[in-house]
Design a protein that fits this description.
The protein is mainly β. Helix content is 12%, strand content 38%. A hairpin with a 6-residue loop joins strand 46 and strand 47 (803-809). The longest helix has 19 residues, at 397-415. The two termini are 52 Å apart. Bound molecules: beta-D-galactopyranose. Beta-D-galactopyranose is lined by residues 428-429, 463, 483, 505, 508, 549, 552, 574, 582, 584. It comes from Mucilaginibacter pineti.
């Protein structure tokens, strides 16, 4: 029977002293060992008979380290069953095996394997025993290995991954064990998997109440009394609150029970997007003087509210969630998770002023949530892209009935301690919005979420946000989510009086980085009037923010509405980064998206600077496009600017005029006849120059420039440096149409892991040591080895002066 008791901090002063004693003597996690299990797997692409058998000879299989995505290593082909919508890369069946030993000393302990995510339909065996099947490619799951292990001997884990039946996704999924794997060893009495839940029910600047629930599992026959102790540490490692609770319990073999502890933290440092202060809660199970288990839970102390009129407040301060939607792929790295690659994406978005992430349309890698906690992003954590009705033939609708409860529970249990998460989404554009079955399913899903967490509101991302929507009618949703329909925002309360609003998905602006068509001042809706006067040259889309799909908007259109009304609590733009698959407005030969504010390689498109000028306090002056045109062509020049009253443009020293944003303008524009030379823009405030920018007509490609985002790397076999490759003329100007083929060489303690250039149409492999520039730029990503040392990277191209760069790893 569950035992639920509450002990207030400070009441058990004797225990408090004991707890402090344990902490001053030992800080490392005790009683539990969590080891990364990524290295040294064998892999076979294709079906294998008896692949699970311990004695199978796998010595001919490829050796690799996880995380691994085999699709990204394949060839882009129209015929691949994923279709261009799914990224046009191969799927198939893959087998992974790992042989490992477990120390004899672990006998009597409990051993688990944790998978953060396997795409998809995974079966796992240990020593020939089937442990389970999980169809959902995004969910994290654990199996207990204990009864089947050879302690002190050899063991074999075998994993079959089946991504052969396609299409099963509307975007690129990747294939394989694409997230981390962990081996966890605990005592038989231990804190359960995802066994803590921390909330902050009362927060003020003077004091915060922190409530912790701890679920203890005893799968042995432990019958002596033990104590649960918990301490809150601040970011400097100092204990700021301690609570001890004695549990006197005998004969509790094979039971699980839950206990609750409240703490007080005086003058807490609050978690915010500007200052994401993190505490941690360390919980121990102690018997006598032995720490049987120790478990760390992240803690951010904050309070937030969605209000029907005032919109969103965080720690009592009104603000908007300025978010983006992202899919899980990492461009040329595929879906294989890499923390540095995720961190870089978030850094690029943060510098734009973005403060929110929607994990469209599935549970993310846990590391993304850790980074959002640390870096100050508000997360909308999403569960499903469909329920019982399909979007594509073989998607999750096949498994929804049997698996939705388990998958949704696991997602909430895994994620609910992250302070960054402030919204749960139980679905994106669920086709059953239109059907009465939603009246049954939405409340059921809401009940699952609310049974595990009532501290965050629940939403669905609705593409039919009108009154006919059965999900909204069901009353199960706390926040009404609109996908698109930006011109209905202002009338929201006429439709839904007293309800709370969130723009779960907006925009879907279409752009190819570095490609421009004139004139730029009329909005083009694909496909209706897209061809006139656009040329569709090379499956490009003009990067003036003026092309949108019928359901979406340009970036400026939505932001203008969004910024007007307080009750519009926030938005998630489709999308922050380009992603593989869904190449709207085209299809093959295009194979990746045009929706990103940042391209697939991580190069910002121009509209990035519109957001930066609006969403940050930075002083911005960004002028575009380039200045290389046919003589006499009429060219539009746009400027995004901030912290200035006006911008003056000069061509070869002659003023083209002063422009000022008026009304709700977000940019200014000049139209002028091209003549080669220098364009110069000067922004001024109160008559004083704030910033100047120059663009020169570039000459022929002459040399390569390499710029590494980081030169000092960690020798951990995972760290990355993103090296920007620029094609310059002899004077150092980027050549805007350069497409030179650049060859890369790397020596030393790193490998070239992938290359890209952001071109959605390229079919070149990401895994080769060369890349053509696209609009003057390419990207090379190098990954360290586990040995420290220097890394020499060179880039050469026919007819160009080569470039070299030296990095180091420690
Ligand atoms: C939305 C959908 C997204 C993506 C987007 C493209 O309707 O929710 O997943 O497909 O359209 O504009």
């Amino acid at each position: 029977m569950p035992l639920k008791l509450i002990a207030k901090a400070g009441k058990l002063s004797g225990l408090l002293l004991v707890a402090l004693f344990f902490y001053s003597t030992s800080f490392a996690q005790q009683g539990r060992q969590v080891i990364n299990f990524d290295n040294g797997w064998r892999f076979n692409l294709g079906a294998v008979d008896n692949g699970e058998k311990s004695d199978l000879n796998d010595t001919q299989w490829r050796t690799l380290n996880l995380p691994h995505d085999w699709s990204i290593e394949g060839e882009f082909k129209k015929e691949n069953p994923a279709t261009p919508e799914g990224g046009a890369l191969p799927g198939g069946i893959g087998w992974y095996r790992k042989t490992f030993t477990v120390p004899a000393a672990s006998k009597g302990k409990a051993v688990y394997i944790d998978f953060d995510g396997v795409y998809q339909k995974s079966d796992v065996w240990v020593n020939g025993h089937h442990l389970g099947f999980r169809p959902n490619g995004y969910i994290s799951f654990r199996y207990e290995l204990t009864p089947y292990l050879n302690f002190g001997g050899k063991n074999v884990i075998a994993v079959k991954v089946d991504n052969s039946v396609q299409p099963n996704s509307r975007w690129y999924s990747g294939s394989g064990i694409y997230r981390n794997v962990w081996l966890v060893t605990t005592n038989k009495v231990a804190i359960d998997h995802w066994g803590t839940f921390v909330t902050t029910p009362k927060v003020s600047t003077a004091s915060a109440t922190v409530a912790l629930k701890v679920k203890v599992k005893n799968n042995g026959a432990h019958t002596s009394p033990f104590t649960i102790k918990s301490m809150i540490y601040d970011a400097a490692g100092k204990v700021v609150s301690t609570s001890g609770y004695a549990v006197l319990k005998t004969n509790m073999a094979d039971t699980a029970f839950e206990t609750a502890i409240n703490f007080t933290v005086k003058t807490p440092k609050l978690w915010s997007v500007e200052s994401p202060y993190l505490y941690k809660v360390v919980t121990q199970i102690v018997t006598g003087k032995t720490i049987i288990d120790e478990y760390t839970t992240p803690l951010g102390i904050r309070y937030f509210n969605f209000d029907a009129d005032k919109g969103f407040t965080l720690n009592g301060k009104q603000m908007k969630i300025l978010g983006v939607c992202n899919h899980h792929d990492l461009g040329s790295l595929g879906s294989a998770i890499n923390v540095r690659a995720l961190e870089r994406q978030l850094q690029i978005l943060k510098a734009m002023g973005c403060n929110g992430i929607r994990t469209s349309h599935n549970p993310p890698a846990p590391e993304l949530l850790d980074l959002c906690d640390k870096m100050g992003f508000i997360v909308m954590d999403e569960a499903f892209d469909c329920w019982e009705w399909q979007k594509v033939q073989y998607d999750y609708h096949l498994y929804f009935k049997e698996w939705h409860k388990r998958d949704l529970q696991d997602q909430i249990l895994r994620d609910r301690n992250h302070p960054s998460i402030m919204i749960w989404s139980i679905g994106n554009e669920i086709p059953q919005q239109a059907d009465s079955s939603a009246l049954r399913i939405a409340p059921e899903l809401a009940a699952i979420v609310h049974s595990l967490d009532t501290t965050r509101p629940l939403t669905t991302a609705n593409d039919r946000p009108d009154k006919s929507n059965k999900i909204i009618q069901s009353g199960a949703i706390d926040l009404i989510g609109y996908n698109y329909h930006q011109f209905d925002y202002a009338k929201f309360h006429d439709r839904y009086p007293g309800k709370k609003f969130i723009a779960t998905e907006t925009t879907s602006g279409l752009e190819t980085r570095g490609y421009y068509e004139m004139p730029s001042d009329s909005i083009r809706i694909w496909p209706e009037n897209y061809d006139k006067p656009f040329t569709r040259e090379g499956n490009n889309v003009s990067a003036f923010d003026n092309v949108r799909p019928p359901w979406g908007s340009t970036h400026e259109m939505t932001w203008k509405v969004m910024k007007k009304y307080d009750f519009l609590s926030g938005m998630f733009i489709w999308t922050g980064f380009d992603y593989l698959g869904e190449p709207t407005p085209y299809s093959w030969p295009s194979r990746s998206s045009y929706f990103g504010i940042v391209d697939l390689a991580g190069f910002p498109k121009d509209v990035y600077y519109m957001y930066q000028s609006e969403w940050t306090t930075k002083t911005v002056l960004h002028i575009f496009p380039h200045w290389n045109w046919e003589p006499g062509k009429m060219v539009d020049i746009w400027a995004y600017y901030s912290n200035a009253d006006e911008v003056e443009l000069f061509l070869n020293g002659k003023s083209i005029g002063i422009k000022k944003k008026t009304g709700d303008d977000l940019h200014v524009m000049w139209r002028l006849k091209f003549e080669p030379g220098t364009l110069k823009a000067v922004s001024r405030k109160n008559g004083k120059v704030v910033l100047t920018r120059e663009i020169h007509t570039a000459g022929a490609p002459a040399k390569i420039e390499l710029i590494a985002d980081r030169k000092q790397l960690k020798a951990d076999g995972k760290d990355l440096s993103f090296i920007t490759v620029k094609i310059l003329d002899k004077d150092g100007n980027v050549v805007p149409d350069a497409d030179n083929l650049v060859n890369f060489k790397i020596n030393g303690q790193a490998v070239l892991t992938s290359v890209d250039n952001g071109d959605p149409v390229s079919h070149d492999s990401f895994k080769v040591p060369y890349r053509k520039a696209f609009h003057g730029l390419a990207m090379a990503i190098v990954q360290t080895k586990e040995k420290a040392g220097s890394i020499n990277f060179t880039a050469t191209a026919d007819g160009l002066q080569s470039a070299a760069i030296v990095l180091t790893s420690k």
